[in-house]
Amino acid sequence: MIKVLFFASLRERLGFEQIDIPADNIKSVTDVYEQLIARGDQWRAALETPTPLMAVNQEMAFAHTAVNDGDEVAFYPPVTGG
C-alpha cells in the first residue's frame, strides 16, 4: 500500500487528510496522480488547478520520482499558509 497525504486547501477540497492506495502498477508519482484523478470530477478539479507540489517520503519529488510499496506520497498546493 501507498499512503497518500493531502495538505492545506487540497485536504479541504477533497475532504481527506490521507488515503491508502494499492501499490499495484504504481511506479512513479505520475501513476499515483493518475489513479487519484481517475476517482472523478472532484478529484480532478482539486488536483489539476493549480498543479500541486509533491513529496515522496518527506522529500520534494517530481512526476518521474519512483514510488514503491510502503512509500508515503504527499500532495500540497504551491502556496500554503502557516
Write the topology of this structure:
Elements: E1 2-6, H1 8-14, E2 18-21, H2 29-37, H3 41-48, E3 53-56, E4 59-61, E5 72-76
Parallel strand pairs: 1-5
Antiparallel strand pairs: 1-2, 3-4, 3-5
What would the keywords be for this entry?
about 30% helix, five-stranded mixed β-sheet, alpha+beta, about 80 residues
Q: How many helices?
A: 3
The whole-number mean of residue pLDDT values reads 94
Shape: globular
Tell me the distance between the termini. Answer: 30 Å
User: Quaternary arrangement of the chains shown?
Assistant: single chain
Strand coverage percent = 25-35%
Report strand order across the widest sheet.
2-1-5-3-4
Main sheet properties: 5 strands, mixed
Nearest-angstrom radius of gyration?
12 Å
Order of helices and strands: EHEHHEEE
- Structural class computed from helices and strand pairing: alpha+beta
Give the helix proportion (percent range).
Answer: 25-40%
General description of the model:
The protein has 82 residues and is an alpha+beta fold. It contains 3 helices and 5 strands. It has helices at 8-14, 29-37, 41-48, and strands at 2-6, 18-21, 53-56, 59-61, 72-76. It starts with a strand and ends in a 6-residue tail after the last strand. The mean pLDDT is 94.
